[in-house]
């Protein structure tokens, strides 16, 4: 028997680029795990914390450097933690770990970063030397902290929405008196 007759009904021709499997880096990324608003917030967190860090690194002199150093630590940590969370969400690593633990970690990390970034931005704003690089870093720091806190609020709303959907029906006080098959 010829191989073509055996495999013809179950195989398909090359689907072409429009229908084929994704290849390269796109095969490993899955954007569907995050809702669109949260994807946007995570992208903005990543971008704004990186911009805050870059603007802070441009500062060449400072008189009260404690606020600058604290802001530097917080902005770089925020960027790296946000990058780590995005890598977990977008790659197959997400399937290898418990999804509940990833979301719980994201919840607390986002709250912590948002709060600490806001404090670092306030301290840096109070101790900066009024250079344009410092002002830009402060603006990006406040914007990034608001994105982190906005993402935290979004996660709270999503948790409440999920708990509303999971609420069981209220138990009836009176027992059923009629038979079910009547």
UniProtKB/TrEMBL annotation:
<dbReference type="InterPro" id="IPR008253">
    <property type="entry name" value="Marvel"/>
</dbReference>
<feature type="transmembrane region" description="Helical">
    <location>
        <begin position="138"/>
        <end position="157"/>
    </location>
</feature>
<dbReference type="InterPro" id="IPR050578">
    <property type="entry name" value="MARVEL-CKLF_proteins"/>
</dbReference>
<keyword id="KW-0472">Membrane</keyword>
<feature type="transmembrane region" description="Helical">
    <location>
        <begin position="77"/>
        <end position="95"/>
    </location>
</feature>
<feature type="transmembrane region" description="Helical">
    <location>
        <begin position="107"/>
        <end position="126"/>
    </location>
</feature>
<keyword id="KW-1133">Transmembrane helix</keyword>
<protein>
    <recommendedName>
        <fullName>MARVEL domain-containing protein</fullName>
    </recommendedName>
</protein>
<feature type="domain" description="MARVEL">
    <location>
        <begin position="33"/>
        <end position="160"/>
    </location>
</feature>
<keyword id="KW-0812">Transmembrane</keyword>
<dbReference type="Pfam" id="PF01284">
    <property type="entry name" value="MARVEL"/>
</dbReference>
């Amino acid at each position: 028997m010829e191989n073509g007759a055996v495999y013809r009904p179950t195989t398909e021709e090359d689907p072409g680029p429009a229908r084929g499997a994704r290849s390269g880096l796109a095969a490993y990324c899955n954007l569907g795990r995050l809702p669109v608003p949260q994807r946007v917030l995570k992208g903005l967190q990543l971008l704004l914390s990186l911009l805050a860090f870059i603007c802070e690194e441009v500062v060449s002199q400072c008189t009260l450097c404690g606020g600058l150093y604290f802001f530097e630590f917080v902005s770089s940590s925020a960027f790296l933690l946000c990058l780590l969370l995005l890598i977990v969400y977008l790659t197959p690593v997400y399937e290898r770990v418990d999804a509940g633990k990833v979301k719980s970690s994201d919840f607390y990390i986002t709250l912590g970063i948002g709060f600490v970034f806001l404090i670092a931005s306030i301290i840096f704003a109070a101790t900066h030397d009024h250079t344009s690089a410092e002002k830009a870093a402060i603006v990006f720091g406040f914007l990034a902290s608001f994105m982190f806190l906005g993402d935290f609020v979004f996660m709270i709303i999503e948790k409440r929405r999920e708990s509303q959907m999971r609420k069981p029906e209220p138990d009836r006080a009176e027992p059923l008196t009629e038979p079910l098959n009547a």
